[in-house]
Design goal:
It is built from nine helices and no strands. The chain is mainly alpha-helical and about 190 residues long. The chain folds into two domains: about 70 residues, 434 Repressor (Amino-terminal Domain) (Orthogonal Bundle); about 70 residues.
């Protein structure tokens, strides 16, 4: 049994509830994610457990990006996956920006504390890591994501396009990891 606050056993209920809230019929959603109405029904009724890939397709089709984060968390798909922020906390972009601003201020204070901790480190001396300060830094990740989700909900910004634009710019300025083709082959 997992100690996680969410359970994979309830994901079918989340999928059904979100589909209903979004106004999609089983047939309409099935067409979008390439499944039959019966397959959709079987998943929603708990007869078939969805794969992480299917759950991500489902939530992406419904524009429920926080739920995609939830899938990453439930299935341990990423080491930094965490339970997502409730979308009601960031219903509009203004609230999301204010929340992010507050999180950034807390993170800046924590960075100062981490710098002081690092300055006091001595070789060969074991020191306690200031985990509360690192948690404040971690809080930035979901804060940034939910701000972008609010931007998508309120203004229809295409998050995939935003991500692709960032990647192209970062590759051209060599901030992002180079594509595989650009790496020099290492000879052993």
């Amino acid at each position: 049994m997992s100690n996680k606050p969410y359970s994979r056993h309830n994901i079918n209920h989340l999928m059904r509830d979100l589909r209903n809230q979004s106004g999609f019929s089983q047939i309409a959603l099935g067409k979008v994610i390439n499944r039959t109405q019966k397959q959709i029904s079987d998943i929603e009724n708990g007869l078939v457990e969805p794969t992480p890939e299917l759950a991500i397709k489902w939530f992406t089709a419904l524009g429920a990006f926080e739920h995609v984060d939830l899938v990453h968390y439930l299935y341990d798909l990423h080491p930094l996956a965490a339970a997502p922020i409730n979308p009601e906390l960031n219903e509009d972009l203004g609230r999301a920006i204010l929340n992010l601003k507050q999180q950034i201020q807390h993170a800046l204070d924590s960075i100062n504390q981490i710098e002081e901790w690092m300055t006091d480190l001595r070789p060969g001396v074991v020191a306690d890591v200031p985990m509360n300060d690192f948690r404040e830094l971690f809080d930035l990740c979901p804060g940034v994501r939910t701000t972008l989700y609010a931007l998508n909900r309120e203004f229809g910004i295409n998050l995939k396009s935003l991500s692709d634009d960032w990647t192209r710019k970062s590759l051209s300025t060599r901030v992002a990891m180079p594509r595989y083709e650009e790496r020099e082959l290492m000879h052993v």
